[in-house]
Amino acid sequence: MELKVLKRTDRELKLEVVGEGHTLLNLLQKELVADPDVEMGGYDIVHPLERPIRAILYVRTKGGKRPEEALLEAIERARAMDEEFIKGLEAALAAHKEKEVDEA
């Protein structure tokens, strides 16, 4: 993944993201817009057939925090969600394994 800052002000951050598409950026957008200090968070895929995939990520805050701070917080929330999913998956697999042993 490559990142390039296209615009950076006290309230706005615009990044070019090369090598990542909807999978990561949609999750970040969801977390950004959940932040009450974020006025707008979104992304646009430059062209769906272009390879490597290239997107523009945009964050605008209401002024209570800097946009890079809002983005870093969104990344941390996504990371926590990932950890929660891993724990849930491990528990489900362990329960399934116990069920298989009981049925055998």
Helices, strands, pairings?
Layout lengths: L1 E7 L3 E7 L3 H12 L4 E8 L8 E8 L5 H37 L1
Antiparallel strand pairs: 1-2, 2-4, 3-4
Helix pairs in contact: 1-2
- For the record, the count of structural domains works out to 1
> Which sheet architecture does the biggest sheet show?
4 strands, antiparallel
The beta-strand count equals 4
Instruction: Return the CATH architecture.
Output: 2-Layer Sandwich
* The CATH C-level class name: Alpha Beta
CATH fold-level assignment: Gyrase A, domain 2
Shape: elongated
- Global structural class: alpha+beta
Mean pLDDT: 94
**Contiguous runs where pLDDT drops below 50 for at least 5 residues:** none
Number of helices, where a helix is a run of at least 4 consecutive DSSP H or I residues: 2
- CA radius of gyration is 18 Å
Order of helices and strands: EEHEEH
Gap from first CA to last CA: 47 Å
Task: Please estimate the helix content.
Answer: 40-55%
In summary, what is this structure?
With 104 residues, the protein is of the alpha+beta class. It has one domain: RNA polymerase, RBP11-like subunit (Gyrase A, domain 2, 2-Layer Sandwich), CATH 3.30.1360.10.
Give an overview of the whole structure:
With 104 residues, this protein is an alpha+beta fold. The chain has one domain (2-103): RNA polymerase, RBP11-like subunit (Gyrase A, domain 2). The protein is 47% helix and 29% strand. It has two helices and four strands, in the order E-E-H-E-E-H. The protein has helices spanning 22-33, 67-103; strands at 2-8, 12-18, 38-45, 54-61. It has a four-stranded antiparallel sheet with strand order 1-2-4-3, with helices on one face. Helix 1 (22-33) packs across helix 2. The chain is elongated. The mean pLDDT is 94.
